[in-house]
Design a protein that fits this description.
By secondary structure, this protein is of the alpha+beta class. The protein is 38% helix and 21% strand.
Length: 279
């Protein structure tokens, strides 16, 4: 019996290592997915302590909108900046969850890669990718990465400039891996003629009418979502005649408020109990 028990344990360990990736994937992917997303949105949120100059300026009200950040192409390193301006409007959607494995000396190490799209359905969209040991952590990390990569989307007209902009202003192309997608302006009322993956990206960007043409291995959802995101992100990269106005050069926020940044100090938290001042 003892020998059988030992063999059972050994066999269980050998099989259990592989099953943990498979069985755990199903449980975590379905049951914990909702919990992970809700946990990322609110609940146990701590007070935001900015770690960058841009974060300090945003929290202290020196920067009024995301457009001011885009104007100077400032890198966003903290997801709380997007939450500060667009928290009520932003909605996230999990595009794909895939398991990846790494072969180690002890066996296989399974992790989960999550592609998350974040948008306000009104001209802002971001796409984030995160790999983690558990699905909820991968989703949360993907949401944070997407908020840091939030970009503005330019919209335009198909014909007469009547009403609000509804389609892409020009033909756009995006590529990732073998997947290539082309966005073509469409008349008002056409809707988004696209597959579910690219259609969701365009909807979250606030585009109402658009034709699309794709080629390559579009079954790879992650690359397909990246290609669509790159295509719509290029919308502000083309200088059309209506943008040929004289450029008024302004100081970047970090230069404009340099005196404020030099005076304001962030209180550092003590890393050890020995460093806490004794009263």
């Amino acid at each position: 019996m003892e020998r059988g028990g030992r063999g059972g344990e050994r066999g269980g360990f050998g099989r259990g290592f592989g099953d943990r990736g498979r069985g755990g994937r199903g449980d975590r992917g379905r049951g914990d997915r909702g919990r992970g997303r809700r946990g990322g949105r609110g609940g146990e949120e701590k007070e935001w302590v900015p770690m960058t100059k841009l974060g300090r300026l945003v929290k202290d009200g020196k920067i009024k909108s995301m457009e001011q950040i885009y104007l100077f192409s400032l890198p966003v390193k903290e997801y709380q900046i997007a939450d500060f301006f667009l928290k009520e409007k932003l909605k996230d959607e999990v595009m794909q969850i895939a398991s990846v494995q790494k072969q180690t000396s002890a066996g296989q190490r399974t992790r989960f890669v999550c592609y998350v799209a974040v948008g306000d359905y009104d001209g802002h969209i971001g796409l984030g990718v995160k790999a983690a040991k558990e699905v909820p952590m991968a989703i949360l990390g993907g949401i944070h990465a997407a908020k840091c990569s939030l970009v503005p989307i330019r919209r335009g007209y198909w014909g007469a400039k009547i009403g609000s902009p509804h389609t892409v202003p020009i033909k756009l192309t995006g590529q990732c891996g073998s997947v290539r997608i082309r966005l073509v302006p469409a008349a008002r009322g056409t809707g988004i003629v696209a597959s579910p993956t690219s259609k969701l990206i365009l909807q979250m960007a606030g585009i109402q009418d658009c034709y699309t043409a794709s080629q390559g291995h579009t079954k790879t959802k992650g690359n397909f979502a990246k290609a669509a995101f790159k295509a719509v992100a290029k919308s502000y990269g083309f200088l059309t005649p209506d943008l040929w106005k004289e450029t008024k050069f302004l100081k970047p926020p970090t230069q404009e408020h340099t005196d404020y940044l030099s005076k304001t100090q962030i209180a550092k938290r003590p890393t050890s109990s020995m460093l806490v001042p004794q009263q």
